[in-house]
Specification:
Low-confidence stretches: none
CATH class: Mainly Beta
Helix content: 10-25%
Mean pLDDT: 92
Shape: globular
Number of helices: 3
Largest sheet: 4 strands, antiparallel
CATH topology: Deoxyuridine 5'-Triphosphate Nucleotidohydrolase, Chain A
Number of strands: 11
Distance between the termini: 44 Å
Order of helices and strands: HEEEEEEEHEEEEH
Oligomer: single chain
Strand content: 25-35%
Structural class: alpha+beta
CATH superfamily: Deoxyuridine triphosphatase (dUTPase)
């Protein structure tokens, strides 16, 4: 079951769901709009290595916006910190943003029960596109879970600003186990 807009508002009010800052005007019939934060990251090398930490370059979006370029992966973040110990969040790009040619969160929309923090957004434009800090970039839906809950305690807990991949931490465990 998916939470309706009124139920999202009720869950925020009674503490079952945390959205900070929260504005009821950003609530949709069955989702909540999240906004793009002011910081973007890009990877600083031509080749990204899944088994190592990769250097990044930080970009600050000023009041004139920032032009995203095709062929580049940008890591953005939500203004809002979102989390719940009861509901499963899924984040997708807004259709209005998709119609501008921007892919948002295509490969990793699923959040975990117990994650609390700003969401890192994977942004890939089809054409050069000017984006602005604070623009509505995505929407999060919340699903009711059934069964026992094992809360998220992973490597991105409490995220603030965009987070580069920490896949290399998982790869280190696989490599250690293979030895």
């Amino acid at each position: 079951m998916i939470l309706t807009g009124p139920e999202i508002n009720t869950a925020v009010a009674d503490g079952r769901l945390r959205i900070t800052p929260f504005d009821p005007k950003q609530t949709n019939p069955n989702s909540y709009n999240v906004r793009l934060g002011a910081t973007l990251l890009t990877y600083a090398t031509k080749v990204i290595d899944a088994h190592h930490a990769n250097p990044t370059h930080s970009i600050r979006i000023d009041t004139d916006g920032y032009v995203l370029q095709p062929g580049e992966l940008y890591l953005g973040h939500t203004v809002e910190e979102v989390g719940s110990n009861l509901f499963v969040p899924l984040l997708f790009g807004r259709s209005s943003v998709g119609r501008l040619g921007l892919f948002v969160e295509i490969t990793a929309p699923l959040g975990d029960i117990g994650f609390h923090g700003q969401w890192t957004l994977m942004l890939s434009p089809i054409r050069p596109l000017r984006v602005y800090a604070g623009m509505k970039i995505g929407q999060i839906m919340f699903f009711v879970s059934t069964g026992d809950v094992d809360l998220y305690r992973g490597k991105y807990q409490g995220a603030a600003c965009p987070q580069p991949s920490r896949y290399w931490r998982d790869a280190a465990h696989v490599q250690a186990g293979a030895s």
